[in-house]
Amino acid sequence: MQNPRSERLVLPIAITYCIAGDDHWIQSRVVNISDSGVLFGPAGVRPGTPLEVIFAAPVNIGSMASGKLVCAAEVVRTTEDGAAAARFDECRFLLSA
């Protein structure tokens, strides 16, 4: 029995990412997003790379409420045009100081 894929939203918003444990953040754009992961690009990462991503969702995404989120993720695939698909492991709201 297959698990159904989460509904994806085409949401061309900014996303910032870094390799987990690094302090060099890179700007990119979301191609599509769901409550289980994100496709974004351009991205210079390979499958298996652990990431941290930050984005501000203007609408609810599946079970995730709108707002600024920081997520631990892992790259699960890349595309020929340089985009990366990352699966979310954990997301939390990023509160401004």
CATH class: Mainly Beta
Number of strands: 6
Oligomer: single chain
- N-to-C SSE string, H for helix and E for strand: EEEEEE
Q: In CATH terms, what is the architecture?
A: Beta Barrel
Widest sheet: strand ordering: 1-2-3-6-5-4
By CATH, the topology is Thrombin, subunit H
CATH level-4 homologous superfamily: predicted glycosyltransferase like domains
Q: Stretches where pLDDT falls below 50 for ≥5 residues?
A: none
In short:
By secondary structure, this protein is mostly beta strands. The chain has strands at 14-19, 26-33, 37-41, 50-57, 67-78, 84-93.
What does this structure look like?
This protein has 97 residues and is mainly β. It has a single domain, classed as Beta Barrel (Thrombin, subunit H). It is built from no helices and 6 strands. The chain has strands at residues 14-19, 26-33, 37-41, 50-57, 67-78, 84-93. A hairpin with a 6-residue loop joins strand 1 and strand 2 (26-33). The radius of gyration is 13 Å and the shape is globular.
